Amino acid sequence: MADEIEEWTEKVRGGDRRAIARALSAIERGDESSTRLLRNLFLAGRRAEVIGVTGAPGVGKSTLVEKLARLYRSRGVRVGILAVDPTSPFSGGAILGDRIRMQSLSIDEGVFIRSMATRGHLGGMAAAAQDAITVLEAAGCGLALVETVGVGQDEVEVAELADITLLVLVPGMGDDVQAFKAGVMEIADVFAINKADREGAERTEQEIIRMLSVMPNRPGWRPPIVRTIATTGQGVEDVQRRIEEFRAWSERSALGERRAREKWRGRILQLVRERMLRNIVEPGVDEARLESCLERVLRRQADPHTLADELIGNLSIGSRHH
Ligand SMILES: Nc1nc2c(ncn2[C@@H]2O[C@H](COP(=O)(O)OP(=O)(O)OP(=O)(O)O)[C@@H](O)[C@H]2O)c(=O)[nH]1
Ligand SMILES: [Mg+2]
Questions:
Q1: Alpha-carbon gap, residue 234 to 123, rounded angstroms
Q2: Are 62 and 210 part of one and the same domain?
Q3: Is residue 2 part of a domain?
């Protein structure tokens, strides 16, 4: 078994596409084997720049991602593309569309494309995406592009694991820009107004500038706004330049390091919670004991907080009980 994991590790590190695909599936399912694999891969120590691309459905994220991937490929960078869809329990139709659109990219051996759904992963989408990035990094991807569909809390969480977040908007969504207020506008390091071939890009830009002016700004960085036409590739080089500028600034200002610290701090704590939960759920709380506790709660002979502590103490986890 251990040998199998070692072999798997080596294959992923060597860029073996089937081994990588198998790793990502295992992560998606939350398999125990993926934990052991990830341990090896993480320690391999390779790093990728992680660019999160987020925005409402249909704004052109995949088209932009594809163009960005080509740009980086032309510079010899190996690219991993993850499309995460927190809204869908399965890899569904929209993502199939992405696959077809990116078909010409996917025959490039230096590109790895994968869509993921939340299925099974205890830590949720962001945790699964983080583990997937670890796989891509180990496989030698210098860049990971992570597309998330939608504009809610899940996207904010996925954005937290990116080094840089590109928020994609389109003209004529003035009201939606308003709707982004709750936490989503803040995640943007760079804005793209895509579909700039349509009317209203100017108005959208003014709207973003207005929103930014009332937002607590990161000192030293005002998120630039780039107009793009993803279908033709117009503006994509400009986006890439802005991304590079942000990266340089993020290094200079130590924001990058601060973000990394926050990200891994959150991840470690989350894993601790996850493991504790699993320790309780998997060995199973003794049903008979639970029943007797329940009876006592129903009769108000004991309170649920105390009983929960008792049950946990019984499983001998939680050092404060020793
Ligand atoms: N006119 C115009 N159409 C575009 C542009 N960029 C993308 N599109 C089209 O918009 C549609 C949606 O593009 P996608 O790249 O799939 O958008 P997406 O944000 O990835 O969509 P979801 O993943 O479903 O949320 C496609 O038909 C694209 O061809 C653009 O700049 N101008
Ligand atoms: Mg898409």
A1: 38
A2: yes
A3: no
Model pLDDT, residue 315 = 57
Q: Which of 53, 54, 59 to mutate to test the pocket of ligand 1 (most atoms within 8 A of CB)?
A: 59
Indicate whether 221 and 91 sit together in one domain: yes
Average pLDDT score, the chain: 83
Distance from Cα 58 to the centre of ligand 2, integer Å: 7
- Check which CATH number belongs to the domain holding 157 and give it: 3.40.50.300
Q: How far is the CA of 62 from the centre of ligand 1 (A)?
A: 7
Does pLDDT of 320 surpass 50? no
- 187 CA to middle of ligand 2, Å? 19
CA dihedral sign, ordered 108, 109, 110, 114: positive
What are the tokens at 146?
A: 């992570």
Q: pTM of the entire structure?
A: 0.84
In which residue are the tokens 């983080």 written?
Answer: 130
Query: Atom 21 (ligand 1): residue with closest C-alpha?
Result: 58
Give the DSSP per-residue string, 266-312: HHHHHHHHHHHHHHHHTT---HHHHHHHHHHHHTTSS-HHHHHHHHH
The pLDDT value recorded for residue 282 is 61
CA dist 92 to 62, 85, 107, Å?
A: 15, 9, 22
Q: Are 165 and 187 in contact (CB under 8 A)?
A: yes
> Up-side HSE of residue 140: CA atoms within 13 Å toward CB?
15
Dump pLDDT digits (tens) for 272-305: 887 787 776 666 677 888 889 889 888 888 888 8
